[in-house]
Amino acid sequence: MVPETENLQQFIAKCAEVVDSKLDKLVPTADIEPIALHRAIRHSLFAGGKRFRPAFVFAVGNVFGVSNDKLINVAAAIEMIHTYSLIHDDLPSMDDDDLRRGRETCHKKFGEATAILAGDALQNMAFQAIVDDVGLSAETRIRLVSIIADASGTPFGMVAGQQEDLTAEGQEITIEQLEQIHRAKTGSMIRVSAQSGAIIGDAGDVEFEAITDFAENLGLLFQITDDLLDVTQSTKTLGKTAGKDISASKATYPAVYGIAESQNMAEKVHEKACRELARINKPTQLLRDVADFILHREK
After folding, report:
1. What pLDDT, in 10s, does the model give residues 220-242?
2. How many domains does the chain have?
């Protein structure tokens, strides 16, 4: 459990430390053949990401009284899937970016073919980490694999959202289409992070529904603030190329609504997310703090 005196930044930093330690054990070392592949994986995986999604697994699990030891494998698995998606998202055929998490993107350092394989391997290792987690029942592991596969795939998951995002480049789209893109591309993995913590914590049906609705709004909030940061912060601050969404004619909230209205939308989505927590008969201040952190983040 998280001590009441510990602030969210410390909580996230500790989660990152625990997850990095687990990832180091799950992923082959850089001296194991094929060396180029394992170096590429580690280059991207240990580039200093915030580990927000694993922290969200821990935060929800802790609310339901689950120890971090029972949450660590699924938290690490979700981070592996997230990193694989970033490696592929940065490819020349996708968003074509040279910088990620403050360092060269995987394909720039190791070549496009190796970057593709690094992403493929991370996806496979993620599911293996869950299947091999003997600390969870077989029924729980099956359920986790099912919902994470659904959230990271298609027709309503991350991969579907990435395709819709590419299709929308340079196009005029509706408000509903914009929201659908981001609920799938970004929101689905944030939602399933929360759901995973709730599943391991044996949440009841009403609580699981409330966590899902909370996380749905949190995912949308994350994307709105991410879009705003792309147009208000520097490349140095973000650790990735600032202004890339505009140059690529991406469908973003500032592009559709403008900065001021996007900021107003972020406030409203934040309020809506926090209202869902009233349906959970558990101490949920940590989850409120997560929502506040996303609303006010600067990178």
Report:
1. 999 999 999 988 887 776 776 76
2. 1
